[in-house]
Amino acid sequence: MKMVILISVLVVVAIAIVFLGLSFFVVDQTQYVAVIRFGEIKRVISEPGLYMRTPFVDSVVRLSKRFYIYDIPVEKIITLDKKTMLVDSYAIWRISDPKKFIESVRTVSLALSRIDDVVYSGLRNTLAKLDFDDIVTGERQSLTDITDFSKKNLVDFGIEIKDVRIKHTDLPSENQQAVFERMKSERRVLQR
Amino acid sequence: MKTKAIILIVAIVIVLIYFSTGIYQVDPSQVALVKTFGKYSHTTGPGIHIHAPYPFQTHVIVDVQTIRKQEIGFRTVRPGQYVQKKEEALILTGDGNIVSVEAVVQFRVNDPVKFVFNVENAEELVKFTTESALREMIARRTVDEILTAERDKVSYEVHQITQQLLNEYDIGVTVINVLLQEVVPPQSVIAAFDDVNNAKQDKERYINEALKYANNLIPSVEGEARKIVLEAEAYAQQKVLQATGETQRFLSILKEYKTAPKVTETRLKIETLEEVLPRARRIILLDGSQNITLLNLDKLIGGDGK
């Protein structure tokens, strides 16, 4: 008899804990949380803390608030003077509007491909108007242009672009070989 | 009774394990950021600490003293052994050439809260930022400048720009140093560069050798020149003296001649003849009387001539 009472108390406690665990959730300092009920975004929480939800009905989607660094794959660009250039760039971005973000891209990997598209077209548009040497030596202004372009085009996805920068400008490997040959010949001139 | 004790012990152990999630240790170089229900509440320093157990409070430990580093253009496989990352190391210069640059950026966390909460992968961000600043600075210079005089300037400027950008991103990082490691021409060009250097060295060497030869030669030649000049001067002096002597003699003869012209004339003639004909054995004299006088000098002078 005593045993039965003890077990039933334990079961009740366990159920209570599970229920509480499902009713409350913690939003971390580094997160946004979207509470979704039957596919509809009920609310978005951007302040950290303890929150309540309706168990089994509300699901939570957690998104990072922090800045991401996206190393954009190397892209081939034709410059104004018809030279080919490999541009290795990266973007610093974060989710600025979780609601828009979930509605439009939903996941980070999808967001990356969106960023890829936008930054690539920004790079192409801006750099195609410049000569090769101008891009290599001083592209500060063009970087700002690219950043602004990307910002404008990604804001609808709930994405904020903090900065777009060029990590590397390279020549395609066959051109690189040509440069090496020229460097050698230049040295030979000096040698004389 | 026994089962009750076991249940009790198990329950106590479970409770203890649960509460131990609130005990944490912070090492001397670290700090811990304590979060209450996910919200950052305070920072604790080194030592053993307790906070409310999960899920009420959690903590993140950050190393704020240790100098962190990121490598650009190479990776350290193990201490003393490096692998070059060609695609990172090769950078276009302002004059359309390519150099291979390896660099290290050293940094420290100055604000752990920002470092942890503002960015997903702060270390990578530091690396990328340094890389792009480095590329920018290299692209402003010619290959010869980078390889020689401007090296220090490049690392200084990269340091400045990187710090400035990181401040903009607000990730709580202080850049301590940007150190350029190996800055060299690309592998396949390096031989040509070495050739030029060798040629320069050779030139230098030839010049030095020539200077040395000149330095040896000049003093001895100068000595010789001085000797010749001195000799010439001595000769001139001798000549002058000789001439003066001669003049003196002539003048004395002139004096004698003036006092006794006839005698002197005859004497001079005889002397001249003596001088001109020292070996003549016979002299034939023709005078106005058409007599031919034959002088046998051998006998006149005393006879044992040959």
What Rg of chain A, in angstroms, do the CA atoms define? 27 Å
Task: Summarize the helix and strand pattern of chain A as letters.
Answer: HEEEEEEEEHHHHEH
Helix content of chain B: 40-55%
Low-confidence stretches of chain A: none
CATH fold annotation of the largest domain in chain A = Tetrahydropterin Synthase, Chain A
End-to-end Cα distance of chain B, whole Å, is 171 Å
Determine the strand fraction of chain B and express it as a percent band: 25-35%
- Work out the helix count of chain B: 9
Question: So, CATH architecture of the largest domain in chain A?
Answer: 2-Layer Sandwich
User: Can you count the beta strands of chain B?
Assistant: 13
- Radius of gyration of chain B, rounded? 55 Å
For the biggest sheet of chain A, the summary is: 4 strands, antiparallel
Q: Beta-strand percentage of chain A?
A: 25-35%
What value does the average pLDDT of chain B take? 86
The CATH class assignment of the largest domain in chain A is Alpha Beta
Global geometry of chain B:
rod-shaped
Multimeric organization:
heterodimer
Would you mind describing this structure in some detail?
The complex is a heterodimer of chains A (192) and B (306). Chain A has helices at 2-23, 98-104, 108-127, 132-137, 140-154, 173-191, and strands at 24-27, 31-37, 40-45, 49-52, 58-64, 68-71, 75-78, 84-95, 159-170. Chain A is of the alpha+beta class. In chain A, strands 6, 7, 8 and 9 form a 4-stranded antiparallel beta sheet that branches. In chain A, helix 3 crosses helix 5 (140-154). Chain A is elongated. Chain B is an alpha+beta fold and 306 residues long. In chain B, the strands form 5 sheets. In chain B, strands 6, 9, 10 and 11 form a 4-stranded antiparallel beta sheet that branches. In chain B, a hairpin with a 2-residue loop joins strand 2 and strand 3 (39-44). In chain B, helix 4 (122-138) crosses helix 6. Chain B is rod-shaped and about 190 Å long. Chain B starts with a helix and ends in a 5-residue tail after the last helix. At the A-B interface, strand 6, helix 4, strand 9 and helix 6 of A face strand 9, helix 4, helix 6 and helix 7 of B.
